[in-house]
Write a structure and sequence with these properties.
253 residues
Length: 253
């Protein structure tokens, strides 16, 4: 099983519009971050995790592979703003989306034309599958366990898939979720910046979780420009912690 980071940035992306900081003006491609999303794939199945407003650019960059389904962590715009661009994947079928019930409701309100009784020809068509923490979801050869994550006061989903846990936009992670992911091979976790934020973990918050979970390797994602330069931050991290960057591909052992 492999995972490709399609985007590793926060809601504004990096560079941030109008910003002249050293990160936003960096020429290092690892400091250019589209909104957070990932492509998980095996020999038989390709799953998209989140579909933000940069989706079209992201999927073209990896040669527009077939997609079997979309997993959504939560309905904030930087994670669902690109769903209309899924229309090429809806030809001849209702494209499957797996998410919490509140996300389903939000999508019906956000893109109502996709769920109309008599839709306009050519609009995307989706089949919404409501999923819940504690219920295993099987998509072809991939088994997914939704995880409870707190994005400030909003419960969102992380995903445990084999020896991988994908967590983004977390502020706190419940003890029962920590127990489920302890000792796994690969942990992907958000780390917005070095200073406190009301709804996202800081770098130190993420490192504290990594110490508890003890994965073989951890990747930090959903970074903002005020985290600092990729190379400067990464050289001071523990040996098993890396900063993810756009189009990085990893193998889950």
């Amino acid at each position: 099983m492999k995972l490709r980071f399609l985007g590793t940035g926060t809601s504004t992306g990096v560079p941030q519009i109008g910003c002249k900081c050293k990160v936003c003006q960096s020429f290092n491609k690892k400091d250019k971050r589209l909104r957070a999303s990932a492509l998980l794939y095996t020999e038989n199945t390709n799953l998209l995790i989140d579909c933000g407003p940069d989706f079209r650019e992201q999927i073209l960059c990896c040669d527009s592979p077939h997609l079997d389904a979309l997993l959504i962590t939560h309905s904030h715009y930087d994670h669902v703003g690109g769903v209309d661009d899924l229309r090429p994947y809806c030809k001849g079928r209702d494209f499957p989306i797996y998410c919490k019930s509140d996300v389903s409701e939000d999508l019906r309100n956000r893109v109502p034309y996709c769920f109309a009784k008599h839709p306009y020809p050519g609009v995307p068509s989706f089949y919404l599958n409501d999923i819940n923490v504690g219920e295993i979801v099987n998509i072809n050869d991939i088994e997914i366990e939704p995880l409870s994550i707190m994005h400030y006061k909003l419960e969102i989903l992380g995903f445990k898939i084999g020896e991988l846990a994908y967590i983004t936009d977390a502020k706190t992670i419940l003890d029962e979720t920590i127990t489920k992911i302890k000792g796994l091979d690969t942990l992907i976790i958000n780390a917005l910046r070095t200073t406190e934020h009301i709804s996202h973990m800081t770098l130190n918050d993420a490192l504290d979780i990594i110490k508890i979970v003890k994965p073989r390797i951890a990747y930090l994602t959903h970074l903002g420009h005020d985290m600092g330069l990729h190379d400067e931050i990464e050289k001071n991290l523990p040996s098993n912690v890396k900063i993810a960057y756009d189009n990085l591909e990893i193998k889950i052992q």
